[in-house]
Amino acid sequence: MIQSKVCTKCGQEKHIGFFHIDRSQTDGRRSCCRECWNAYRREYRETHHSKIKAYKSKEWARIAARRLIDPEFAEKSRQIAQRNFAKYRFSITLEMYEEIMASADVCMLCGVQFKQTKKCLDHCHITGRIRGVLCNNCNTFLGKGGDTVEPFEKAIRYLRSPPLNIAPVFSKNRNQQ
User: Fold this and answer.
1) Cβ(135)–Cβ(157) under 8 Å?
2) Pair 32, 40: CB distance under 8 Å
3) What CATH homologous superfamily does 104-162 map to?
């Protein structure tokens, strides 16, 4: 079995793992390495931005129109989107995702009922581990902190002793002035 290959773009001999899989090729790999292929794709996207944008908008319009006239297609595409979301975002099956989401009635951080707000599956962006089901506000709040405790500790210190503690000059009811 081939362990190395020469890239047709850069001319370097590299391990076979540095080449994308391509079943149409005789050896099962692309002729140029991943680095060269990615550079080519990046350059193509930059030089053909409007062409790609036009194609994508046309394709999305075609799919949206089909969803409107074919409810079966709409349901199938919704299921595929949900399955792919669970698989690629959280590395779990759709069944696991649905079971986790169905098991939570209230936000695990603030306790708000999910009938009043949107459910979000909270996960650590560093490890990928699922932490719990949160409301959209709490999930966004944690996401802004960057999955570390330091920003929250700083925020607590700030709230306990703000650097500026100036009383308002005007009363809250401005009609009384």
Assistant:
1) no
2) yes
3) His-Me finger endonucleases (3.40.1800.10)
Listed by start position, the domains of the chain span 104-162
How distant, in Å, are the alpha carbons of 1, 47, 102 from that of 106?
55, 48, 11
Query: Which H/E stretch holds residue 110?
Result: none
- Closest residue by Cα to residue 131 from 140, 141, 120: 120
- Report the residue count for the chain: 177
| Buried/exposed 23-47: b ≥16 CB within 10 Å, e otherwise | eeeeeebbbbbeebbeeeeeeeeee
Other CB atoms closer than 10 Å to residue 152's CB: what's the count?
13
Q: What is the mean pLDDT of residues 58-67?
A: 90
Name residue 5's beta-bridge partners: 14
Residues 98-129 have pLDDT tens digits of 899 888 999 998 888 888 778 898 888 777 88
In sequence order, the 6+-apart residues with CB closer than 8 A to the CB of 137 are: 110, 117
For residues 142 and 123, what is the distance between their CA atoms, to the nearest angstrom? 10
